[in-house]
Design goal:
The chain has 168 residues and is mostly beta strands. 3% of the residues lie in helices and 43% in strands. The chain has 1 helix and 9 strands; from the N terminus they run βββαββββββ. The strands form 2 sheets. A 5-stranded antiparallel β-sheet has the order 1-2-3-6-5, with no helix packed on it. Strands 4-7-8-9 form a 4-stranded antiparallel β-sheet, with no helix packed on it. It is globular, with a radius of gyration of 15 Å.
C-alpha cells in the first residue's frame, strides 16, 4: 500500500487554490506508478458550483487534482493518450451514481471532475484508483484497482481502505 505523498506545495497554498471552490479536502496520497513509470499523486478534492447547470443536477461537482511524478514528457503526453488516463470509480454510503469520466490532463498532472457532488446525507466517499485500460506498451488490458481511499465527508479525514493492497 502506498503512503502519503512526499512533501510538496501544500494544497492550502494560494498558488494551488482554485478560484470558486466552496470546500476543499487535502488528499496528498501517492497511488504509485500506475501510468507507466509515473506515480499518480492525488492532491485535493474540491467542491465547485456547477455553473453549466445540467451535469450535476445538484448545483455542485467535485474536482480531484493530481500530479505525475516524474512529469510526462511532451512525447508521452501527445502519443497514446489513453495510456495516460488512469481509472477512477467513485461511490458513497448512500448509493449515489457518480460520473468521473471527464477532466484535464497535462504533462505534470491534471484533474478529474466528479458529477454530482455528494448529497447532504452522504458521510463517506470512496475513491477507487485503477490502472489505465491501455498498457504503457500500447496493448489493451483490463484496468485493475490498485488503491481505494475513504474520505470522511464530515471530518475531511482521508485514509486508505482496508481492502486496498495493490492486488487485483
Amino acid at each position: 500500500m502506498s503512503a502519503a505523498a512526499p512533501p510538496r506545495t501544500a494544497v492550502s497554498d494560494p498558488a494551488e487554490a482554485l478560484i470558486g471552490s466552496t470546500r476543499s479536502i487535502p488528499i496528498d496520497f501517492d497511488a504509485g506508478p500506475i501510468v507507466g513509470p509515473h506515480r499518480v499523486i492525488l492532491r485535493a478534492l474540491r467542491w465547485f458550483p456547477d455553473v453549466w447547470g445540467g451535469r450535476s443536477g445538484r448545483g455542485e461537482y467535485l474536482d480531484l487534482s493530481y500530479s505525475f511524478q516524474p512529469p510526462l514528457t511532451e512525447e508521452e503526453r501527445s502519443t497514446d493518450f489513453p495510456r495516460n488516463v488512469w481509472t477512477l470509480t467513485v461511490t458513497d454510503d448512500v448509493g449515489t451514481d457518480y460520473d468521473s469520466s471527464t477532466g484535464g490532463l497535462g504533462a505534470s498532472g491534471g484533474d478529474r471532475e466528479i458529477h454530482p457532488a455528494p448529497p447532504t446525507g452522504a458521510e463517506t466517499l470512496t475513491l477507487s484508483i485503477g490502472t489505465p485500460p491501455l498498457g504503457w506498451d500500447g496493448e489493451p488490458r483490463p484496468s485493475q484497482v490498485v488503491e481505494e481511499l475513504m474520505v470522511d465527508l464530515r471530518t475531511g479525514k482521508v485514509s486508505p481502505s482496508e481492502h486496498a493492497d495493490g492486488l487485483p
